[in-house]
Amino acid sequence: MFYGIKERIIVALDVPTLEEACTIIEELRDYVGMFKIGLELINNAGVGPQILVEKINKALDGNPSQIFFDGKLLDIPNTVVGAAKAVAGKVGFFNVHATGGVEMMRAAVAVAGSSKVLAVTVLTSLDEEECQAIYNRPSKVQVVQLARLAKLAGVHGLICSPQEIAVLRKRQEFQSMILVTPGIRPVWAKKNDQERVTTPADAIMAGGDCLVIGRPILEPPEPIGSRVNAASLIAEEIEKAFAALAEKVSGEKKG
Question: Which of the following is catalytic: 6, 58, 72, 85?
Fold first, then answer.
């Protein structure tokens, strides 16, 4: 699946009001590829998912492919189908939790229409100690296991931390899947509550497709200045990463 440089940046609309979300869209729409509607906005906007998606789509001048509905659906298959139908075909991406199992994910894919379904593997806020406590196995092992279930269900892509991208890309079974990664922190940004993080360049070098970025763009540190400047710096970093990848491939061919 082809992406340009800016299309690889997904801005997380982690704000409580639709008005704030629309302001961010107006600021950044020319500098990024997609906007993520997360649980904070979904639960505070004062409208249901269908109307929320319609309003965000209107702010984007009618381009649903630029919307990622991050509802993290997790329930019995029949309930997930009902929830998925509210946004299916009206957004570029929506997601489900892989821990819901194959049948649940398969049911979401069946009603997705033109939307791509992504499966959440292990949350990027969990460190290795918590992964062991919850799953009784290392994060990378758990991610691969859940990714296999998602692949079996026909899901289009995976959401994983940047530290698992290379692990997935090394396996032939996941080569065709879209890898979307949160937990992206440029060297100039704070880590905040994310644990398994890396830089935009490292995520791209490892094989990531799209990077979900919230606070480093929405609340850039003082030396960076504006949101536009933060997004532009990240795009430059991604572009340099692709140049480095091309140089690496060229060197391997010559060798």
Answer: 72
